[in-house]
Specification:
Layout lengths: L8 H9 L2 E5 L25 H25 L5 H9 L3 H22 L1 H16 L5 E4 L15 E12 L2 H4 L7 H12 L52 E2 L8 E7 L2 H11 L5 E4 L5 E3 L2 E3 L6 E4 L3 E8 L13 E12 L2 E11 L7 H22 L5 E10 L10 H4 L3 H4 E2 L3 E3 L2 E2 L21 H8 L2 H7 L24 E6 L6 E9 L11 E7 L5
Parallel strand pairs: 3-5, 4-18, 12-13
Antiparallel strand pairs: 1-10, 2-6, 3-19, 5-9, 6-9, 7-8, 10-11, 11-12, 13-17, 14-17, 15-16, 18-19
Length: about 525
């Protein structure tokens, strides 16, 4: 396929009809080039022609009033925090109910009056989706490129995965969350905090490791001292303390987000993350009429990287069902350029996904897991060159099943876990003693013990706090599993997995469950730090 998605139209259309497309993002540099030139080849629009992009703007403008009215209708349902505030107001419930009634009538009237215009917008929007690329690529200049990596030196990479539930506010209310623009601003600010560290200092990540044989170096700060230290954890192989953190890792190399559906939230994240992560894949998903159904939302996936992306691919799951079928859930894959060694490319592979949600749909998830394994293998075969050194192969995302619920037993035994390693898992149905759930009891996310990152960390550090505020193991019917007893650690549905079959030996040295998103999401983000062993001939 040609550069920047400018391949033969027929070939690309055929691959998009199958729900997937792989696009090389950057030219393969010549031997004389000292650096790769990231982000210069792929247009930052999902459309090949500006006229089509302009038509989509017109179509979405015609649909906007319908979208606005429907979102505000759904947004009238209060969260548990808003309901508590209404009860505390002096005017009581009557005033609030009257206001909601007026808003509901106004929104319903607008929906009905604008329906013919909205239908015209939909008729214009639908055919445009067939010509649309399944993701957009954002490159922001100004960050120092990756430096050469001496394979005799020890190296670590940090991966962060988070379900941020950034749906339109009305839909987010079904997860007891609202105020999507405000939550997006908070998330973006903490994922990419303002730092006095100049961009060029990021090159220290690929400098030589210094230290004794029993410790692992961290990222060097502007003053030259370690700003974070990676310590080998005995708890990775035997019982140890919980690895809970109040903050996102400051040295995250890659960020994989799920449920970034809201356009305003997406714009906030793109703008803020650009200063830290110059390479970003967003607006992911094949919308429109796909696989016999209508996809009105994208996949909700967003991938941010400090390192250049050589190629990217996306596949839409063909078997979505129920409300999940309205979103183009699928698998986003990227090939990352980490540097060069011995005249060869040093690359990594990173994938992000979000599987079918309802507990009763284990068979659908099982098929999606099988498809993912196939797509990951095909992508790597298609993009890997002879002589490439593969540093890592990591899969992140919300898989919507755990390793403790009897209702998820089918998915727990999938072949995926024979190919990719889960550091938090001992065996099907049995997690490491220190691993905890990542799915919160969404009805309790505003209660005082979990209302701030600091309080949530203290609360979830205790068995009683975990049983009270994390989602409990379930049966296939979604009902609580009475056989789970009182020893469960919660439903761990968010994963960061790594493949052991790479050119360099990788080892998980730290897993963190992060409380940064207290009251901002119903999931705990997860971070994995991988150590790459020195490659000494």
């Amino acid at each position: 396929m040609g550069h920047g998605g400018g391949a033969d139209d027929g070939a690309e259309a055929s691959r998009q009809e199958e729900g997937g497309v792989a696009i090389p993002l950057n030219p393969l540099p010549s031997a004389a080039a000292p650096q790769d030139s990231p982000g210069m080849a792929l247009p930052q629009s999902p459309f090949r022609y500006r006229a089509l992009a302009a038509l989509e703007v017109v179509a979405e403008g015609l649909l906007a009033p319908e979208y606005w009215a429907l979102n505000h209708l759904l947004d009238l349902q209060p969260t548990t925090a808003e309901r508590r505030q209404q009860q505390q107001r002096q005017c009581g419930r009557c005033c609030g109910c009257a206001r909601q009634a007026v808003v509901a009538v106004a929104c319903a009237t607008l929906l009905l009056l604008w329906l013919p215009v909205g239908a015209l917008g939909l008729l214009l929007w639908l055919p445009l989706q067939a010509a649309r690329r399944p993701f957009a690529y954002q490159y922001t200049a100004g960050t120092a490129p990756a430096q050469p990596w001496d394979l005799r030196q020890r190296r670590t990479f940090t991966f962060l995965s988070a379900n941020v539930c950034l749906l339109p506010s009305g839909l987010a209310k079904f997860s007891n969350l609202g105020q999507t623009p405000q939550r997006a601003a908070y998330i973006a600010r903490h994922l990419a905090p303002t730092s006095p560290e100049p961009a060029g200092d990021r090159a220290s990540l690929v400098e030589a490791w210094h230290g004794d044989a029993n410790s692992y170096g961290g990222t060097l700060g502007a003053a030259g001292r370690a700003s974070s230290v990676v310590v080998e954890m005995p708890s990775m192989v035997e019982p140890g303390p919980l690895v809970l953190s109040e903050r996102f890792p400051a040295d995250a190399d890659f960020v994989c987000l799920q449920e970034v559906f809201d356009p305003t939230a997406t714009a906030v994240l793109r703008r803020r993350l650009a200063g830290t992560f110059p390479h970003l894949l967003w607006d992911v998903g094949a919308r429109g009429l796909r696989h016999g159904g209508l996809r009105v939302l994208g996949s909700g996936l967003l991938l941010a990287s400090r390192y250049p992306l050589l190629a990217a691919g996306y596949h839409c799951f063909p078997n979505g069902a129920g409300e999940d079928a309205l979103a183009a859930k699928g698998l986003l894959m990227a090939q990352v350029l980490l540097g060069r060694a011995r005249g060869q490319r040093l690359v990594g592979y990173l994938a992000c996904t979000h599987l079918q949600a309802p507990a009763a749909d284990a068979a659908i998830r099982e098929e999606q897991l099988t498809l993912m394994l196939r797509w990951l293998h095909q992508f790597r075969q298609a993009e890997q060159l002879d002589g490439d050194l593969v540093a890592f192969d990591v899969l992140c995302g919300d898989l919507n099943f755990d390793n403790c619920s009897s209702g998820d037993a089918l998915n727990q035994r999938h072949q995926l876990f024979q190919t990719y390693q889960d550091p938090c898992r001992r065996a099907p149905g049995q997690d490491q003693p220190w691993a905890i759930g990542t799915l919160l009891n969404y009805l309790k996310i505003y209660e005082e013990p979990v209302s701030t990152p600091e309080k949530m960390k203290r609360t979830l550090s205790q068995p009683g706090g975990r049983r009270q505020f994390l989602a409990a193991p379930i049966l296939p019917s979604s009902d609580p599993d009475p056989a789970a007893g009182d020893e469960w650690q919660g439903r761990r549905v968010d994963y960061v997995l790594h493949h052991a079959g790479t050119s360099l030996r990788t080892e998980a040295v730290e897993v963190s469950f992060i409380t940064q998103l207290a009251t901002r999401s119903d999931h705990l983000p997860v971070a994995l730090r991988l150590r790459l062993a020195p490659d000494i001939p």
